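Here is the promised in-class demo. Please do not try to memorize the tokens; focus on the logic of going from shape to residues.
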């Protein structure tokens, strides 16, 4: 089941770049046109996107950025917390501090 399309992640990234600039942002995974449904590549991209979101979740003031919190709340609500533990914990920490 695909709950977020790559273009949704790309739109979020564009909003984050607009707010924070590109200087301190983590690497955003590129889209592949060929072989993008290969299970090993899908898993690799999932891990890269999780790492990206986990890093973004630590940015100062990110808990007040509506584009990020809306994306993340909808994203996390579909998954068990043990599937993305680092991301879930980072978001909870960022929003409760």
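The designed amino acids, position by position:
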């Amino acid at each position: 089941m695909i709950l977020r399309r790559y273009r949704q992640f790309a739109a979020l990234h564009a909003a984050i770049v607009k707010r924070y600039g590109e200087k301190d942002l983590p690497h955003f995974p590129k889209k592949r046109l060929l072989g993008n449904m290969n299970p090993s590549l899908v898993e690799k991209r999932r891990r890269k996107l999780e790492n990206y979101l986990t890093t973004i979740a630590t940015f100062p003031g990110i808990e007040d950025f509506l584009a990020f919190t809306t994306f993340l709340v909808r994203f996390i609500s579909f998954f068990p917390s043990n599937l993305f533990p680092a991301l879930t914990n980072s978001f909870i920490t960022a929003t409760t501090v």
